[in-house]
């Protein structure tokens, strides 16, 4: 397991705030501009999720799906994903980095080689949307051997036995999906999310990050009041989805991330 | 399996054994499984439990088989195509007439089964993906009969190719939702249906149309279609006094193939042949032959053979037949191929068109383009066999839905002007 994700949450806890977890798809809108955008976002996040583009992103809404389409159309390869990850790591030695995507991309490379390369460029963890704990046999050993955390998801449809399973098999943090739906939909009711997170916390010491549908600082602030981390994805991807100048997009992204981070609670750094 | 009901006296053709079952996680050897997003894991488990409970319940089979008989029109005939046999000059060719089912294809065997499950589970709404539109029509039909709300996801490209089926679905009261993402074909319709289901699983049952997808769908779809092979087995024993030498079916995802072939799986002397869509040719890059040209990968909830690039991106496929235009294939067929139990053939667009015309002219039966792939390959194999040998070809659907597409390819629409 990676020590770094644990340190990120410890640091945030010491500062009395939640971690801001930001997502962008690697290679969106193309590998060169993606580098500037990822660096702009990473500078304001505690953890960054770097999406690995996939042809069939079944759990994603139209915003992140379009990001995958743009990245692949621009010729983004898995090598680009690794190189972008390396760039983020070199500029941000202490940030948490999670590679996020769908099973077929690492499966095609082979989980051993994938894990070796992911660890070498500085990733701390991997979140594969369509590999639930039950199918972990194909990847868990490889992740473990290369010191990568296996981030698992829980959702409002997860019964207690699945919560126990994810908490036993997962590491780094638990990603709680705030709604029954796809990324970018409307966030669920705060009260429901709060009670679900509290319930999961009775079963694990792992940090809980909440994501899917968090678009405004108000929503982020509400979730930050009880979750260890707040994941913002589609909202950030939307910031860069236009045809505008990449430097302007990077500026807007940084401002948007800073605004989110400002409401994570605690003393601002 | 002593818990399973005995074959019912009213329906002596059928039995309810679950042979070659997947493991508890839905794996067929190294294939299959349940590679699904967390939100869908519990709904999938609930369907699995509901299926096993229903399958062990004689009342479920009584209702299902009654509908298959009196609503769908089963058993479908097994027809000895003597003129086609003579023209081919080899093995005796028998056609399993799934085209005579209500709605015109085998698909309704499965939608009746899953529709009954949905009703048992108290779901008020059903959704489905569709390629050629046959599964969509079969789902919309069952939804109309059961009084359920119905949304069908269909690639915009497929809607253009299969407009009569789109209109039939609308007439049946279903909402047909065009899918523009990706290649706007079947795989993208599956993605979109899954996206909807993630958000609606509480009141919605996803009626999956082929023997692929996350566990338990490959098992469900296979079991609901085995009526095809169970009937054919009994019928050929009655008509010819022995089992066939070869059984042939086309393969997109594999629903009609598993339906015909599975009941012959333990008959070691029966060759099982799967026919894929070779499109413009297997070397053209424009085909849908995932068993012949794919490699192991993970898509739509299961590990199977996929048409993909070196980095795991799923490739666009091509077939004249929308129902075969899919980059994956059922996990159990992948296993049967690896175990050497399945022979592979592929038919090009042109050969399928020729087979459609040949059967129409010599037997007066207009087959679906999908089934025409099986016919073309079947006749090629039969030509090399002896006249005392027997082949069963699954005529999985009728060609009415394909007429515009066929006339366009034959250039007849221009001629008529």
Automatic annotation (TrEMBL), chain A:
Its EC number is 4.2.1.20. Pathway: Amino-acid biosynthesis; L-tryptophan biosynthesis; L-tryptophan from chorismate: step 5/5. One of its GO terms (cellular component) is cytosol. Gene3D superfamilies: Aldolase class I (3.20.20.70). The keyword Metal-binding does not apply. One of its GO terms (molecular function) is tryptophan synthase activity. The keyword Lyase applies. It catalyses: (1S,2R)-1-C-(indol-3-yl)glycerol 3-phosphate + L-serine = D-glyceraldehyde 3-phosphate + L-tryptophan + H2O. InterPro entries: Aldolase_TIM, RibuloseP-bd_barrel, Trp_synthase_alpha_AS, Trp_synthase_suA. Pfam families: Trp_syntA. The active site is at 49 (proton acceptor), 60 (proton acceptor). Keywords: Amino-acid biosynthesis, Aromatic amino acid biosynthesis, Lyase, Tryptophan biosynthesis. SUPFAM superfamilies: Ribulose-phoshate binding barrel. Belongs to the TrpA family. Tetramer of two alpha and two beta chains. The alpha subunit is responsible for the aldol cleavage of indoleglycerol phosphate to indole and glyceraldehyde 3-phosphate. PANTHER family: TRYPTOPHAN SYNTHASE ALPHA CHAIN, CHLOROPLASTIC, TRYPTOPHAN SYNTHASE, ALPHA CHAIN. This is Tryptophan synthase alpha chain. It comes from Mariprofundus ferrooxydans PV-1. The gene is trpA.
UniProtKB/TrEMBL annotation, chain B:
Pathway: Amino-acid biosynthesis; L-tryptophan biosynthesis; L-tryptophan from chorismate: step 5/5. The beta subunit is responsible for the synthesis of L-tryptophan from indole and L-serine. InterPro entries: Trp_synth_b_CS, Trp_synth_beta, Trp_synth_beta/beta-like, TrpB-like_PALP, TrpB-like_PALP_sf. CDD domains: Trp-synth_B. Tetramer of two alpha and two beta chains. It comes from the Bacteria. It comes from Mariprofundus ferrooxydans PV-1. GO terms for molecular function: tryptophan synthase activity. Coiled coil: none annotated. This is Tryptophan synthase beta chain. Its cofactor is pyridoxal 5'-phosphate. Pfam families: PALP. The keyword Amino-acid biosynthesis applies. Keywords: Amino-acid biosynthesis, Aromatic amino acid biosynthesis, Lyase, Pyridoxal phosphate, Tryptophan biosynthesis. The keyword Oxidoreductase does not apply. PROSITE patterns: TRP_SYNTHASE_BETA. It catalyses: (1S,2R)-1-C-(indol-3-yl)glycerol 3-phosphate + L-serine = D-glyceraldehyde 3-phosphate + L-tryptophan + H2O. One of its GO terms (cellular component) is cytoplasm. Belongs to the TrpB family. The modification N6-(pyridoxal phosphate)lysine is found at residue 107. Its EC number is 4.2.1.20. Residues 74-396 form the Tryptophan synthase beta chain-like PALP domain.
């Amino acid at each position: 397991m990676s020590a770094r994700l644990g340190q990120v949450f410890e640091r945030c806890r010491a500062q009395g705030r939640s971690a801001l977890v930001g997502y962008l798809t690697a290679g969106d809108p193309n590998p060169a501009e993606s580098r500037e955008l990822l660096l702009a976002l990473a500078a304001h996040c505690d953890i960054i999720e770097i999406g690995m583009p996939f042809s069939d992103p079944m759990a994603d809404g139209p915003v992140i799906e379009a990001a995958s389409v743009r990245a692949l159309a621009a010729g983004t390869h898995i090598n680009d994903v690794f190189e972008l990850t390396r760039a983020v790591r070199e500029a941000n030695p202490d940030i948490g980095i999670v590679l996020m995507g769908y099973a077929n991309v690492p499966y095609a490379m082979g989980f051993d080689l994938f894990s070796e390369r992911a660890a070498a460029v500085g990733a701390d963890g991997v979140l594969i949307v369509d590999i639930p704990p039950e199918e972990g046999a194909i990847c868990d050993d490889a992740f473990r051997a290369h010191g990568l955390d296996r981030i698992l998801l829980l959702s409002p449809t997860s019964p207690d036995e699945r919560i126990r399973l994810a908490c036993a098999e997962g590491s780094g943090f638990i990603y709680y999906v705030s709604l029954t739906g796809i990324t970018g939909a409307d966030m669920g009711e705060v009260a429901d999310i709060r009670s679900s997170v509290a319930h999961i916390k009775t079963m694990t010491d792992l940090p809980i990050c909440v994501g899917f549908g968090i678009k405004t600082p108000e929503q982020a602030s509400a979730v930050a009041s009880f979750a260890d981390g707040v994941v913002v994805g589609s909202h950030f991807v939307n910031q860069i989805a236009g045809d505008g100048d990449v430097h302007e997009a990077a500026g807007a992204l940084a401002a948007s991330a800073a605004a989110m981070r400002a409401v994570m609670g605690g003393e601002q750094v | 399996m002593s818990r399973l009901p005995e074959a019912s006296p009213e329906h002596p053709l059928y039995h309810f054994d679950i042979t070659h079952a997947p493991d508890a996680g839905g794996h067929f050897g190294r294939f299959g499984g349940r590679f699904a997003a967390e939100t869908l894991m519990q709904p999938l488990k609930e369907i699995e439990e509901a299926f096993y409970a229903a399958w062990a319940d004689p009342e479920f089979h009584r209702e299902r088989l009654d509908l298959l008989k009196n609503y769908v029109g089963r058993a479908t005939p097994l027809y000895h195509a003597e003129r086609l046999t003579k023209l081919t000059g080899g093995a005796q060719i028998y056609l399993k007439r799934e085209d005579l089912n209500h709605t015109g294809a085998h698909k309704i065997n499965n939608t009746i089964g899953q529709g009954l499950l949905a009703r048992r589970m108290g779901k008020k709404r059903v959704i489905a993906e569709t390629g050629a539109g046959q599964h969509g029509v079969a789902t919309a039909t069952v939804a109309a009969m059961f009084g359920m709300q119905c949304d069908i996801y269909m690639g915009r490209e497929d809607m253009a190719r299969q407009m009569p089926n789109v209109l039939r679905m609308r007439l049946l009261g279903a909402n047909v939702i065009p899918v523009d993402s990706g290649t706007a074909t079947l795989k993208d319709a599956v993605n979109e249906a899954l996206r909807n289901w993630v958000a609606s699983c509480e009141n919605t049952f996803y009626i999956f149309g082929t023997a692929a997808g996350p566990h338990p769908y490959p098992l469900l779809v296979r079991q609901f279609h085995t009526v095809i092979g169970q009937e054919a087995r009994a019928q050929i024993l009655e008509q010819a006094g022995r089992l066939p030498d070869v059984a042939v079916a086309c393969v997109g995802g594999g629903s009609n193939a598993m339906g015909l072939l599975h009941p012959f799986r333990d008959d070691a002397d029966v060759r099982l042949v799967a026919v894929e869509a070779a499109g413009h040719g297997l070397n053209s890059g424009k085909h849908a032959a995932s068993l012949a040209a794919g490699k192991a990968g993970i898509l739509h909830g299961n590990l199977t053979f996929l048409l993909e690039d070196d980095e795991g991106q799923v490739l666009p496929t091509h077939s004249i037949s929308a129902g075969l235009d899919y980059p994956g294939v059922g996990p159990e067929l992948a296993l049967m191929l690896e175990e050497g139990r399945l022979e592979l053939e592929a038919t090009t667009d042109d050969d399928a068109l020729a087979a459609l015309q040949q059967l129409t002219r010599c037997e007066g039966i207009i087959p679906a383009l999908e089934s025409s792939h099986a016919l073309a390959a079947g006749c090629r194999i039969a030509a090399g066999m002896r006249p005392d040998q027997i082949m069963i070809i699954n005529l999985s659907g009728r060609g009415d839905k394909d007429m515009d597409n066929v006339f366009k390819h034959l250039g007849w629409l221009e001629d008529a002007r």
